[in-house]
Amino acid sequence: MRILLEALQAGRLFELTETSKRGAFEFLGRVLEAIPEIPDDSGVVEAMFAREATGNTAIAPGVACPHARVEGINAEIFCALGWSSAGIDYEAEDGNRVNLVVAYWIPDCQRVGFLKEMSGLAKAITALGGIESLRKCETLGEVRHGLLDWVTVALNESSPDARARMLRLSAKPPAGEEPRA
Amino acid sequence: MAAQKQVIEENNRTVRLLRGTEEEAFVAVKARREGLTVAEASARLEEFGHNSVTAKRPSSIVELLRKFKEPLVVQLMVICVLSFIFEDDETKKILSTTLVGGMVFFSVFLSYFQESRSAATIAKLQAMVKSTCDVLRGGVEITVPIDEIVPGDVVILAAGSIIPADCRVIQAKDFFLSQSALTGESMPVERVVMAAGSGETSAQECPNGCLMGSNVQSGSAKALVLATGRDTQFGAMSARLVERKDRTAFERGTREFVWMMIRMMLVMVTLTFGFSAWRTNNVQDAFLFALTVAVGLTPEMLPMILAACLSKGARSLARLKVVMKRLDAIQNLGAMDIFCTDKTGTLTQDHIVLQRHVDVIGRDSEDVLRYAWMNSYYQTGLRNLLDRAILNRTDLDVERSCRKVDEIPFDFQRRRMSVVVDHEGDHLLICKGAVEEILSVCDRYQIDDEIHTMIPLIKDEVMEEYRSLSSQGFRVIALAYREFDRTKEVFASSDESGLVLLGYLAFFDPPKETAATALAGLRARGVRAKILTGDNELVSRKVCSDVGMPVGRVLTGAQLAAMDKATFDAAVLEADIMARLTPSQKEQVIRSLKSQGHTVGFMGDGINDVLALKAADVGISVDTAVDVAKESADAVLLEKSLLVLVAGIDEGRRIFCNIEKYIRMGASSNFGNMFSVLGAAMLLPFQPLSPILILLNNFIYDFSQTAIPFDRVEDDQISKPRQWNISGIRSFMVWLGPVSSLFDYLTFALMWFVICPHACGGTWSELAAANHNSGTSFSEKQTLFIVLFHTGWFIESNITQTLVVHVIRSAQVPFFGARASWQLTLTTCAAICFACWLTFSPWTKGLGLDGAALGVTFWGALALMTVAYVTLAHLIARPRLRAA
Fold first, then answer.
1. How many domains in chain B?
2. Does B191 share its domain with B274?
3. CA-to-CA distance for B498 and B513, rounded, in angstroms?
4. Residue of A110, A111, A116, A168 to mutate when probing chain B, most B C-beta within 10 A
């Protein structure tokens, strides 16, 4: 959730005037492309649509995380947030309109960070009762505060869910050699 | 009744041993849980004999006598008896009986000899593809041939195993059997351990019984052998179970041809008898003449030619390392126009290597390798190539710190399997299998040592790694795990839920260097290859493009499942690759292609291929296949290579070509003879050829055809699938037959108007008038007239009939464009020379032949007619041969 926090701190939360999926993608894509660390002409919008074609990126009722993955660039992950009070038609499998769109730009080397961010976000949404608390917000500032609550919850919750205790087995010693104690 | 009684007795005994306690069963068969010792097993093998239900091969005499039941042979023997009864002349009686007997001898003994030879070859080859079974001997697991299993053995069974004898289950895990061979029921049945059996009265229904003739669909088990060989239920029933398989297209075609010839012969004989009796006013002679005409019209050498061609083919294929389990499948091999196969081992080297073991985002992970290794190490089901590749990659020291708790075996519905291991106070379930199936039971995933919640978006993300590996040609499976409390000891497939996805294993099976050549060879021969695989479409597409196979439409099992019948039929015909297919979908695809008029071959080696192998026109398996796949196949390749198959297809087509030669000859020359004899019987005041000469002519002609199986086949004749084509045979018959008759009539005219009057000093009418004037009924000149007429037609008929094989054997110009094998050339030349020599020989004067009196005019005209006949026959046959 640190990526989301960083985006909120950098003021990348915007009111979405467009209610179409394409409009939202194009707007947030332009916001991401305006970030100095993201190369020009990196095709963020096209990459987001390409990813969307393999599966809808709505992760919970009212929340979607479209993303553009890029190869061969060693950089940080960035995201930009769009809020639509009316909700946009996201063609989500649950049929709900999406109010919060969090668009990510992910260099390939940061996939782990992205997956953890998604798991954390999903956990926070569940913990705080979903999008309903944000839908009550009347201004973008209130939405920002609500999102900061999500981040706080996610960072305070134990993340990851658990630590793996893997079996540590060693290879068999060659025949005739005693294994070390 | 005796067989039925035996079935009941065997059922009662088996049921008794299944219903009692396990201890009673062990006591009854004098066995122990750790199995028999090697010495005990050996002694029991002596006592009970080999574990085989195959009915004892009948003695040579019985097999020989069976040959006399062939309709063509029966017909010859009837004629032989009738001519013996009705012939007055003692010399002719003996001679005609000897000749017909000789024909029976040729047909019966040669086909018996050929079949015995090929049966011996096949038996020898089948011994090389023997099925085996794992068994405990003295507490040690060893593999023995199934026919060496004895009562009291403890056998170890896994998915793909054949149940080798009638057994009682003493240990089982999700153990499902297919009993379709016994009961006809296609749904698998579960078999379990029962301390004391239930109240069933039929062995097939006992929940703890597994009977010979079944095979293991999934799960694993240990079972105590109660009865073997003929003492099993299957053995007792085998006499009644000898069910006639559906006739192949080849068998149906052959029978259709034989009956067509017999019907034609019956009509012909009736007409000939009527006309001959009317013209000669001698009913007995007319009857004998009609009978001999019947012999002339009978393709009596067909059984011999079939046996010789097929057995020669089986031996040739054996040299190519193809073992034909059913001789008549050879023709199907040549007729095949669609060849379906899995890609593994045919397009690829079947040398699977574990190339990568990665976490969910594609980073190398030792944990993935370790967990996969434990899964493969502890599983007791059928260890496939992937397991072997994993086990070959490393060797872990598990014995000191781990203990196997349970296992959830693989099946084709779940497409995954698990083992449960006890390690330091926890029970760890490790599950591996098809990626989609594993992901469907995961709700968490692991990165480094962190476990996170899985949501659909993340599933899509981690699937990308799988897609990426697949598109590089890797075969990918997923690995997941879950920890359970130590108190849980028994696990079922429902415990495969809430798993943690750990990563992927990527295997590589390099494309075969020969695959591209073989596929091009199949294409050149008009055989379209289709890939039917359980693997995913990305890997299949990559492998196919690597070996240069054109990939048009690719379908998945899910897409096929959603189609209606008409769409399904059209789609499977169009598609080159069908991926992610279930075993029953493979079978459906084969049946659909067959229903659309194609001859379909299927090559498979796994338990999931059995249904398709059975459904195909020609099921092909390999020596390394699971037992049940080998049992279901028509042909077994001792070398898993498509090149071998291509060579096999060529051989199948060559064999069928040679069979077709005899059939075309038989049909066309017999049809021609029908016209000739009918015409002669109507027009001539005497019989055109004496019965003895017809038989002699036929005997010589038959001899000339014995080399057909050894004839060479031109390359253009094997360039496309050769299917049985009765309309093509009819076309030959209706066009070539009359050509043969035309030259017979020319010969009649030559003899009637030129040769005989010239040699006898007058026409038949003039000689008859002279007789009438002198008051005699029949003059020496008239006798000479008949002898010369007979001699002329005997020679012409023999030469044209014998030579026609050189015309119909190839579309190329006979003798110059395409030459027959030396064997066929020799037999045809020998037959012609012998026939001509007979007419000059002083020893055969009694037969009514006199070649010396014919004169140069006849021989010159005969040479011209022969050339003209061969030319005309070639011109008529050529387009038909090209179209065939």
1. 4
2. no
3. 44
4. A111
Residues in chain A: 181
Task: Out of B374, B447, B453, name the one closest to residue A112 (CB).
Answer: B447
A99/chain B closest Cα distance in angstroms:
18
Nearest Cα residue in chain A from B372: A167
Q: Cite the beta strand spans of B409-549 per DSSP E.
A: 416-423, 426-433, 442-447, 450-453, 475-484, 499-508, 528-532
Ramachandran area for residue B186 (φ above 0: left; ψ -120 to 50: alpha; else beta): alpha
d(CA B261, CA B739): 19
pLDDT in tens, B660-688: 888 888 777 777 877 787 788 778 888 77
Selected residue of A71, A119, A125 to mutate for chain B interface (largest B Cβ count, 10 A) = A119
In a domain, B134, yes or no: no
Residues of B serving a catalytic function are 342
**If phi over 0 gives left and psi between -120 and 50 gives alpha, with beta otherwise, what is residue B597?**
left
Interface test with A, best of B457, B468, B538 (most A CBs within 10 A): B457
Which among B607, B638, B669 is the end of a domain?
Answer: B638
CB pairs under 8 A between A and B: 90
Q: Is the Cβ pair B500, A164 closer than 8 Å?
A: yes
Q: How far apart are CA B387 and CA B433, in angstroms?
A: 11
Question: What's the Cα-to-Cα distance from B178 to each of B96, B212, B410, B544, B574, rounded to whole Å?
Answer: 59, 11, 15, 33, 33
DSSP B514-544: THHHHHHHHHHTT-EEEEE-SS-HHHHHHHH
Q: pLDDT band at B607, cuts 50/70/90?
A: low
Q: B416 and B496, same structural domain?
A: yes
Residues B29, B152 contacting (CB under 8 angstroms):
yes
Locus of tokens 């050498």: B301
Q: What pTM did the predictor assign?
A: 0.67
Q: Are B452 and A173 inside 8 Å of each other by CB?
A: no
- Inter-chain residue contact A59 with B444, CB threshold 8 Å: no
Shortest CB distance from B455 goes to which of A118, A171, A179? A118
Q: CB–CB of A161 and B453 under 8 A?
A: yes
Q: What is the pLDDT of residues B165-215, one digit of tens each?
A: 899 999 887 788 877 656 655 566 788 888 775 666 677 778 888 888 788
Q: Which of B361, B428, B483 sits opposite A112 (nearest CB)?
A: B361
Inspect the interface and report whether the beta carbons of A170 and B449 lie closer than 8 Å: no
Alpha-carbon Rg for chain A in angstroms: 20
Could you give all domains of chain A from N- to C-terminal order, each with its CATH number? 2-156 (3.40.930.10)
| pLDDT value at A180 more than 50 | no
Q: B488 and B448: one domain?
A: yes
Measured at the CA of B654, the angle between CA B649 and CA B659, to 5 degrees, comes to 125
CATH of the domain at B476: 3.40.1110.10
Instruction: Determine the residue of chain B that is closest to A57 in CA distance.
Output: B457
- 3-state DSSP assignment of residue B415: coil
**B724 plus B675 within the same structural domain:** yes
B447–A167 C-beta distance less than 8 A:
no
A173 touches chain B (CB under 8 A): yes
Enclosing domain of residue B176: 2-51+149-241
Interface residue A169 vs chain B (CB under 8 A): yes
Q: Which residues of chain A have a CB within 8 Å of the CB of B444?
A: 161
Nearest to B690 by CA among B767, B786, B796: B786
**How far A31 CA sits from the closest chain B CA (Å)?**
23
Q: Which of B757, B733, B675, B845 is nearest to B272 (CA)?
A: B675
Report the relative pairing of strands B189-191 and B166-178 from DSSP bridges.
antiparallel
- Output the domain CATH number for residue B624: 3.40.50.1000
For the question of an ipTM over 0.90, the answer is no
Interface contact flag, A118 B456, Cβ < 8 Å: no
Q: Could you tell me if residue B416 is inside a domain?
A: yes
